[in-house]
Structure formats: structure tokens, C-alpha cells
UniProtKB/TrEMBL annotation:
<comment type="similarity">
    <text>Belongs to the hyi family.</text>
</comment>
<protein>
    <submittedName>
        <fullName>Hydroxypyruvate isomerase</fullName>
    </submittedName>
</protein>
<keyword id="KW-0670">Pyruvate</keyword>
<dbReference type="InterPro" id="IPR050417">
    <property type="entry name" value="Sugar_Epim/Isomerase"/>
</dbReference>
<feature type="active site" description="Proton donor/acceptor">
    <location>
        <position position="143"/>
    </location>
</feature>
<feature type="domain" description="Xylose isomerase-like TIM barrel">
    <location>
        <begin position="21"/>
        <end position="256"/>
    </location>
</feature>
<dbReference type="GO" id="GO:0046487">
    <property type="term" value="P:glyoxylate metabolic process"/>
</dbReference>
<dbReference type="InterPro" id="IPR026040">
    <property type="entry name" value="HyI-like"/>
</dbReference>
<keyword id="KW-0413">Isomerase</keyword>
<dbReference type="InterPro" id="IPR013022">
    <property type="entry name" value="Xyl_isomerase-like_TIM-brl"/>
</dbReference>
<feature type="active site" description="Proton donor/acceptor">
    <location>
        <position position="240"/>
    </location>
</feature>
<dbReference type="Pfam" id="PF01261">
    <property type="entry name" value="AP_endonuc_2"/>
</dbReference>
<dbReference type="InterPro" id="IPR036237">
    <property type="entry name" value="Xyl_isomerase-like_sf"/>
</dbReference>
<dbReference type="GO" id="GO:0008903">
    <property type="term" value="F:hydroxypyruvate isomerase activity"/>
</dbReference>
Amino acid sequence: MLKLSANISLLFAELPFLQRFEAAARAGFAAVEAMYPYDQDPAQMAEQLEAHDLEMSVINLPPGDYSAGERGLATLPGRSADFDRALETGLAYASQLRCRRVHLLTGNLGRGMTFEEVHPTLRRNIARAADYYAGHGILVLLEPLTREMLPHYSLTRVEQALELIHDIGAPNLRLQLDLYHTQQEQGNLAALIERHFDDIDYIQIAGVPGRHEPTVGEINYGYLLDLLQARGFAGWIGCEYVPAAGTLDGLAWARERKLLQPRGDRGKYHI
Ligand SMILES: O=C(O)[C@H](O)C(=O)CO
Ligand SMILES: [Mg+2]
């Protein structure tokens, strides 16, 4: 049976952040993921996870200066002290949240730089992150993101991520396949899933265009979820989308597929 995780940076945004855990549990999720939880108290988050019997399935590592457009530091020579601090902060949160996965955002390409030019720095930093987290039993995930959303991002294609993963060869370095991003960057999703199935630890879903419910848009998620089910995909599937209307109404697709069994009274939240 496929397992869904609620991205509580985007889902249940009708509620204050700490109330989203209970809402996700009541909706039937067994796990939640969060993009950048670093403005939250991890002890309070851990309490919510415990109280509602939820797993924290993945968090992003700190991205650097988000408001300045940074999305990771691993491509940036001269930022190794900041990169190390991001690894430490990520570990502190992951440990407290008992989260077994961190997504390492790789960073932008500097002006006029190519992927090939940043590759040595990127490879060194990814290897360092994998080594740093290995001792703590935490997986480091690489996720190709689309230039439609982040025009200067460095890691955009599945093959780039896999080349780094295989070349570095760390057992805790794995692929996070976000089908929303990959559809826009290269498409051919079913073939990619089949071809690279054994490398995929984690999947994220959203409709294209718009990043709304997976039922809306050009991706046939019914087909892809059937394929993942048939292949016995055992990892989490993160619902990382912006609900077009209310979160709960927008989850009808998951209830219909019996992927969510609501645990309680949804009336409480009016969402
Ligand atoms: O945007 C995404 O799809 C990533 O999963 C992410 O969280 C980086 O912001
Ligand atoms: Mg994603």
C-alpha cells in the first residue's frame, strides 16, 4: 500500500503551523514533511509528532539566505563554513524530530557558471554531507528542481542527481523524485520511474501547471500511482502542493484511492 506524507508547509496552511500536525493525523496521514522548519521550535514540533503518532518523513536542510534567492550552498566555493553550519542545524532538527531523511538543496549556479564548472565543489560538498549524516543513520536526498520555478538552480535533471549518487557511492545518498519538477524539466515520468526505481527513496507529487492537487493538470497521477503500487514502492509519497480550495476537500482523490483513512472529526477545523 502506498504511503502518503502531508507537506505541512503547504497543506493545512489554513491553520497555525503547530496545529497542522493534528489536522494531518485526523485526515489520515501517518507522516508529515516540512520545507524549512527552522523558524519553529523543534521541541514543540516533536511534541506534536508524538501526540499525534506521526513520523517526520523529510525536512530540507537550511538553504542559506532564502530571501536573497539562495537554495542551498553546495555549489558555492567560499561558503564552506556556512555549509557546515547548515549541516549542523539540519542535524539538530532531524535528531529532535527523529527524522531519517534530509533533502540537501544543491544551490544555484553562479552568474555565467555551468553545471560542469560547479561539479567538483558540488560533489565534494554532497560527499561531505553524506558522510556527516551517515553516522546518525540519516539519509541525504538529492532532488532535481525545475528551472521553471528556480531559473538558476544547479540540479535540474534526474540523470545529474544519479551520476552524483552513483559516483559518490555513499549508501545513505538517495534520490528524491519530485514528479512536479521532473515533469516540467524532462517529462517521461513513467519510464523514469521504471528505469531508476531502485534509486528512488522518496517521491513528491503535485499537479502541473499550478502546483495544485495531483488530480488537476497534465500528469496522469492515477496511472503513475498504479505503477508505483504495482512495483511495490515502499517509500513515502509527499503531497507537496498548494491546495486550490480547502485542504480536506482537495484530498478527496486520496480518500477515494483508500490511501487516507480519516481518523476523526473533520468538523473541528473548518478547513
Ligand atoms: O520545492 C520543492 O519541491 C522541494 O521539495 C523543496 O522543498 C525545496 O524548496
Ligand atoms: Mg519537492
